[in-house]
Write a structure and sequence with these properties.
The protein has 165 residues and is mainly β. The chain is built from one helix and eight strands.
Length: 165
């Protein structure tokens, strides 16, 4: 069985709905609902001890992309994150899972908000099957998480959403 990821919130390659876009509270000029999308995965390889989920925009005009969401240490029996799991106040993140710092500076989902008039940006929601849990804290940077995942991932799969304003 192949490792796959799907979403009830969007199809691979579709535009993300306003519900998933960054809210006005962040001051970047967007006015979305800032709710992380639903994600569901299956077919993880044997030996998976945890999952990680990231949302990354490789098109951000930063020289290094932009990390919108980082969740690690999702228990291996969990195969789905519900809508708005990235909101710390929602209580929807599975027990044991840890959100870590994004490029917005906090440990929570931060939706798309590319520069006005820019080309459509790609938002890669990647699920990693990891051979262990990661020894990190909520303030660990996305780059350090990425470094750890590079060496400890057994398999990964992604679904892409687009957004332009």
């Amino acid at each position: 069985m192949a490792f796959t990821v799907t979403s009830d919130s969007f199809k691979d390659g579709d535009y993300l709905k306003q519900d998933h876009v960054l809210s006005a509270d962040f001051g970047f000029g967007c006015a979305g609902g800032n709710r992380s999308p639903h994600l569901k995965w299956s077919g993880a390889p044997a030996g998976t001890r945890s999952f990680a989920v990231t949302c990354y925009d490789p098109d951000a005009p930063t020289g290094s992309g932009f990390w919108h969401w980082v969740v690690v240490n999702i228990p291996p029996e969990v195969t789905e994150l519900p809508l708005d799991a990235g909101n710390p106040a929602s209580g929807k993140l599975p027990q044991g899972a840890l959100q870590t710092r994004t490029d917005y500076g906090n440990a929570a989902y931060g939706g798309p908000c590319p520069p006005e008039g820019d080309h459509p940006h790609r938002y890669l929601f990647t699920v990693f099957a990891v051979g262990e849990t990661l020894d990190v804290v909520a303030d660990t940077s996305a780059a350090v998480i990425g470094f750890n995942l590079h060496f400890k991932t057994l398999a990964k799969v992604a679904i892409m959403g687009l957004y332009k304003r």
